[in-house]
Specification:
The protein has 246 residues and is α+β, with helices and mostly antiparallel strands. 37% of the residues lie in helices and 21% in strands. The chain is built from 8 helices and 7 strands; from the N terminus they run E-E-E-H-E-E-H-H-H-H-E-E-H-H-H. The strands form 2 sheets. The chain has a 5-stranded mixed β-barrel with strand order 1-2-3-5-4. The longest helix is centred in the last third of the chain and has 18 residues. 40% of the residues are buried. The structure holds zinc ion. The site of zinc ion has 8 residues, from loops.
């Protein structure tokens, strides 16, 4: 281990998979280093607390040795664990899965994104707190995570020419609301209330979001999913599990 740099950072576990007989590779979003992939050695051989702290959705204070390809976890202290609050609620659990998978897709190793870390940590706490409907927490997270990644949707002014809104059409490839001039074939025509809801979710206006009606939440979720999938090359698999009201 001589000469191998050691680092410490807060991190959210995004996913894990098995490595060999006893080890596990843990993919995490760290606060200061962007996405990190690290080996947790021996965690599958014993029922160690160490391993139990490295489940998807957990927030840990992490200590690692930097490796050539993979880092090695030497310590993981729990900062927050939302598993219990989320595991018994199917809607919350599927929302959690979709958030973790999206975060994994939007972040890169070696590219620090403290904003994505703060956003995800806040969304996990919100989901576990149960104050807002899980689907709203998810859609708010997705819109804001995409905005941080450089794909901010517009729900008022025209996303193509900037003409002042509100506009009655939404075009995924244009980036959101489109005016009558910019409206391309295949644009959606969502209810005005749905556009207001999506704008509230993007800006974090929870009073407006919580007061929204089910049909607008459902329509909004469809637009958010289409917007996300347009920007990611393939769909986020977990989104298909999320129960959408119809
Ligand atoms: Zn326009």
């Amino acid at each position: 281990m001589v000469g191998m740099p050691l680092y410490r950072d807060a991190a959210i576990v995004l996913r894990t998979h098995k490595l060999g007989e006893a080890d596990r590779i843990v993919t995490m979003l760290s606060r200061g280093r962007g996405k990190v992939r690290a080996v947790a050695k021996g965690v599958r051989r014993t029922r160690s607390k160490f391993g139990a702290r490295l489940e998807p959705g957990m927030v840990v204070d992490l200590q690692c040795y930097e490796g050539r390809n993979l880092d090695t976890i030497t310590q993981a202290e729990s900062l927050a664990s939302y598993g219990e609050a989320i595991a018994h609620d199917y809607a919350a659990w599927t929302a959690l899965s979709a958030m973790l998978e999206t975060c994994d897709r939007l972040t890169e190793e070696g590219e620090p994104s403290p904003q994505q870390f703060i956003l995800l940590a806040g969304a996990l706490a919100s989901l576990a707190g149960g104050v807002h409907e899980p689907g709203l927490v998810l859609d708010s997270y997705l819109l804001r995570a995409m905005a941080i990644a450089g794909w901010a949707a517009s729900f008022h002014d025209c996303a193509r020419c900037g003409a002042g809104g509100p506009h009655g059409a939404f075009n995924v490839s244009a980036g959101g609301a489109v005016c009558p001039v910019c409206r391309a074939p295949g644009s959606a025509a969502p209810a005005p209330e749905t556009m207001v809801l999506l704008a509230a979710l993007l800006t974090g206006d929870w009073a407006a979001a919580d007061a929204s009606e089910r049909r607008n939440r459902s329509e909004g979720s469809g637009l958010v999913a289409a917007f996300l999938q347009w920007h990611l090359e393939r769909g986020v698999r977990s989104l298909r599990l999320v129960e959408r009201a119809t």
